[in-house]
């Protein structure tokens, strides 16, 4: 059997090898010699392929290997062909999309060109109209520009016409420095327009006023009442001469005792008279005088006494001078304390006038905001006034003063006069003034003022007391001596503030409670309960009570926090202003009993047995719900006592039933515990049942309808 040999023509030996492909294979019918050691059948199954390698060598492969390689080459060719088709399709899609985009861009550019042409036409039209308007208003614009310039000039010169009157006012108020500054500011303008007759009159008036000012200033320089001139004359004249006399005696040798006694009597007598005159002059200066001038005069006075002490050692005149300075400081503190009292009184007067203004009672929202603003202004203004006075008194403790660093002066002036007598004394005056509004014998204060003063005391207790005392101790270098009992402690002042706030708040609750009670009392006492008609609506006084309580709630809410309430029951939480209580809601215990049950007092006794005692006039907490609870307790207790003194018919009892049910619908939301309202209203209805000649209650559904309609 012949062997087929496949020869691959890959090129000459030594050239690069090329891959084998089916097209490059040449089949040869070359006979091969039999190989020794192999069978003929084995040799017949072998097909030898001579393939040159990269070095010109040939490689022999089997037919199966060649067929496998052919299949692999065919598969690769098909894969490349498929990839080429996919690439062509993708590029074709992109070409189509690009063509669409270019077409769309052409359309957009064409549309944009049309719009730009339209815009250019519009701009040309606007330009044409603008030119027409400018031509039309050219004359008017020139007139307006001219008038504007004249107006600006008149506005700048307007102060000249008011200058003479303003200078006179400055002269009358003693504000000489401001008058001089205003005249200097206007002098150049007056000189510039001095050729005009109208300005000549103004200039003449101003010059006359300035001449009068010069005369007054010269009179002050020549006045003997100026304290600086007084101290300088006393120091340079009297003390200098007295020091020369003492120095002359000290220069004499062997001075006998009689001469020394005569000298001592002479010096003591003259110094005593000098101190008396200085004391009188200082007291006169302190009646509304300038503190800075007073302190400088006291420093000069005290400084010149040091020389006298050096020459005459038989007495400490500097200590006497320090005592005079201390009395001046004490008098200044008392003067400022009186100023603070007057200021606080005037502030309270303004607050009362503001509270009495109609705008505060027109709307609840306006009233609330006005109360909070009044409180802020009252507290801040008072604190700032005290700070201003403390800064004024700081002039006495300047380190460059001869008496400012002396321990005796600092202890007495800073601790006793400034801190205790002025600051602490004003705190005591503030609490005493606030408490005075609680006295029944005083003029009746508006309830809003009581509420405002109560919150003011709480604000001082919370922050203002600590702030002012800390500032005082820091500015005047006062050491903490609270444990020694010398200084009034901050805790003591805060306790007084809180006590005053509590008294004012309790008085406010009683005042508002009695105001509502008066309406309820009159509504019960002035009605004929035996001949009343069947109730068809809630009485107007009950609606007024609810409105007044709501107004008080808004007023108190402007100053105090809500406070804590007990958890409401599910029935109470469903009650609203516009929806009446359903059959599942809380109802009076009396509404579930028949007339036979009403004849017995067992229900009342059982109810009182398991109920706690209610303190009507107890102190309230500093919260809105506690304050409203106190007012409602007083009101309902008055209602209860009035009902106990009347006799009711059947319809009178039913009217009380409707009224109490209406109050029950609305009052529970204002109190800390709704059960308190339920209990008092049950007491009122129960008392009416016992005082009724024919105790028959109305059906609860009818009561609901009447209250909902009311």
List the helices and strands and how they pair.
Layout: E1 5-8, E2 25-28, H1 40-45, E3 49-52, E4 58-59, H2 63-136, H3 138-173, H4 176-192, H5 197-222, H6 227-251, H7 257-285, H8 291-311, H9 317-356, H10 359-362, H11 364-393, H12 407-436, H13 447-475, H14 490-525, H15 540-557, H16 570-573, H17 595-598, H18 602-609, H19 624-644, H20 650-667, H21 674-690, H22 700-709
Parallel strand pairs: 1-3
Antiparallel strand pairs: 1-2, 3-4
Helix pairs in contact: 3-4, 3-5, 4-5, 6-7, 6-8, 7-9, 8-9, 9-11, 9-12, 11-13, 11-15, 12-13, 12-14, 13-14, 14-15, 14-19, 15-19, 15-20, 19-21, 20-21, 20-22
Main location: Golgi
Function: Acts as component of the GARP complex that is involved in retrograde transport from early and late endosomes to the trans-Golgi network (TGN).
Organism: Timema genevievae (Walking stick)
Task: Give the proportion of residues in helices.
Answer: over 70%
**First and last CA, distance:** 129 Å
Give the overall shape, derived from the CA principal axes: extended
Mean pLDDT over the residues: 80
Strand order of the largest sheet: 2-1-3-4
> How are helices and strands ordered from N to C?
EEHEEHHHHHHHHHHHHHHHHHHHHH
* Rg on CA atoms, Å: 55 Å
Class per helix and strand makeup: mainly alpha
**Mind describing the biggest β-sheet?**
4 strands, mixed
Unreliable residue stretches: 1-55, 360-365, 569-600
